[in-house]
Write a structure and sequence with these properties.
This protein is α+β, with helices and mostly antiparallel strands. 37% of the residues lie in helices and 21% in strands. The strands form six sheets. The chain has a six-stranded mixed beta sheet with strand order 1-4-8-5-9-19, sandwiched between helices. Strand 6 and strand 7 form a beta hairpin.
């Protein structure tokens, strides 16, 4: 942090955050202790308890809080299970200030000590400056960092430079059930005066370089099912005389992608958006350590050997991954059975301007052609049960300019402008419904291990992230005011 570029107000704010970092970590410890796993139905009460804690924190800031009941959803076994409420919080109505909508979630992925954790996943544990615990970086830490930043302004009795709208949910890890309908219902009400939308639910590209995210890939998930009969068969009795479904399926899966990672489905690359020169320049300036990325992943070698090739194939080109086979024997040992029906599962990461309906048609036609060439009498069924479109923002938008300035103030350097190879459906959801600017502000490092064992956020990133959010409030307020003053002047002239 450069003192020459830091105002007296920012210094006062940052000093308060430093002095209260132990309190902020205690708050995170309290939240991590709640096993708010939205994936497992028997833990739904814990998710609801977590939502109540989050609502209490917003109310303590002085926000008006509404916990919206979303009803229930049906589980695969037919059971109806109540959905946790979505929190809508409102703080500030000053017409002179811009209004920022902050989205976050406080549910988590499943975690057990026996999964390979070095510590209890629901006890926040600090080791060598890292805060380990489920939800520490995804997404309880970033949500609390935002709240901590707002709390700092109130504690110092400073005028809020922006108005806030909070959207906090408890079902993100399980598909955000009910959220889209709520956003559509409230678009002309709760969100009517929102100027900018902020999401902090992803990570930097590296362990040390701060980043701003301007895009993410979508995803199309496929099931390919092959069936030969009503029941499993003994391989000693029927092996060698029937067309085995698993052999058909392996041939189908093998036809999808070659050893260089290139998808073999005809036409799949036809509509991929061309790389703009402006974006190409962003790739060149990004700090990216291949060895660090290998260490984070635990693999010895990538398909590609240069920074640009790696990033292009993570962000700008579609990729295909095979995830599993249902119906085949997978337990330890040998079971000499020929399964009657097997289902292969794979997905294709979508990029602009791929059309999901076209992609589905291309996949179905390709698999049918491969299957036909095998002359198999078995039944083939291809389906696309889940699909999401990619998201892309304008890095020249005012919110990105404000975030860049804030990162310079807090970290003393320019951020990397990055995309995310994963899907972030809420970003596109907000952007599509509200037609407003959406910005992704990650504060977690690449090695934080979201969804994995030993998830963590460093003390450094948690506290610096709180400062970053506070600086962002000030910067976006200044730029927004300047933009409107300029527009007003031009209108009068």
């Amino acid at each position: 942090m450069s003192s020459s570029s830091t105002s007296a107000l920012e210094i006062e704010i940052f000093q308060y955050i430093d002095a209260h970092q132990s309190d902020f970590i205690e708050n995170l410890k309290e939240w991590v202790a709640v096993e708010s796993d939205s994936v497992q139905p028997d833990l739904r009460k814990e998710v609801v308890r977590m939502m109540a804690l989050a609502a209490d924190r917003l109310a303590a800031l002085g926000a008006t809080v509404n916990s919206v009941n979303l009803g229930s959803h049906q589980l695969p076994d037919g059971q109806d299970l109540p959905l946790p409420p979505v929190i809508l919080g409102e703080l500030g109505k000053d017409p002179q200030n811009p209004t920022i909508c902050f989205y976050g979630h406080v549910d988590v992925q499943p975690a057990k000590k026996e999964d390979g954790w070095n510590t209890d996943p629901y006890t926040l544990t600090e080791i060598d400056g890292n805060l380990y615990g489920r939800g520490a970086t995804d997404n309880k830490g970033p949500v609390l960092a935002w709240i901590n930043a707002v709390e700092t302004f109130r504690a110092l009795k400073l005028a809020m430079p922006v108005n806030f709208r909070f959207v906090i949910e408890g079902m993100e890890e399980a598909g955000s059930s009910g959220l889209e309908n709520l956003l559509e219902e409230e678009n002309q009400h709760f969100f009517s005066d929102v100027d900018y939308i902020v999401i902090s639910d992803n990570l930097w590209l590296s362990n040390k370089e701060p980043a701003l995210t301007y895009g993410s890939r979508g995803n199309a998930c496929f099931f390919v099912e092959v069936e030969c009969g009503r029941k499993d068969l003994h391989s000693g009795t029927f092996g060698g005389i029937i067309h085995e479904p698993l052999m058909d399926l392996i041939a189908l899966l093998d036809s999808l992608v070659d050893p260089t990672g290139r998808i073999q489905i005809p036409g799949i690359y036809d509509s991929v958006a061309a790389l703009r020169e402006e974006e190409r320049k962003l790739y060149k300036s990004i700090e990216f350590d291949l060895e660090e990325h290998k260490n984070n992943s635990g693999v010895k070698k990538f398909i590609f050997g240069t920074k640009e090739e790696i990033l292009l194939h993570l962000w700008r080109y579609p990729s295909l991954s095979i995830h599993g086979i249902e119906g085949a024997f997978h337990e330890p040992g040998i079971k000499t059975v020929i399964p009657a029906k097997v289902i292969g599962k794979f997905s294709i990461r979508q990029v602009p301007h791929m059309d999901l309906s076209v992609v589905k048609q291309q996949v179905v036609e390709h698999l049918k052609a491969v299957f036909s060439n095998r002359n198999s009498p078995n039944k083939l069924k291809v389906s696309m049960p889940l699909a999401s479109k990619p998201w892309l923002a304008d890095v020249n938008d005012l919110s990105y300019k404000a975030a860049r300035r804030a990162i310079n103030t807090v970290f003393g350097e320019d951020p990397d402008f990055i995309c995310d190879g994963s899907k972030i459906p809420v970003a596109r959801m907000f952007q599509t419904i509200m037609q407003k600017s959406v910005i992704m502000l990650p504060i977690g490092a690449a090695d934080d291990g979201e969804h994995s064992q030993n998830e963590k956020i460093s003390r450094h990133n948690y506290i610096k992230g709180t400062k970053f959010f506070a600086a962002f409030f000030l910067e976006i307020s200044k730029l927004h005011w300047h933009l409107h003053e300029t527009s007003h002047t031009e209108t009068n002239n």
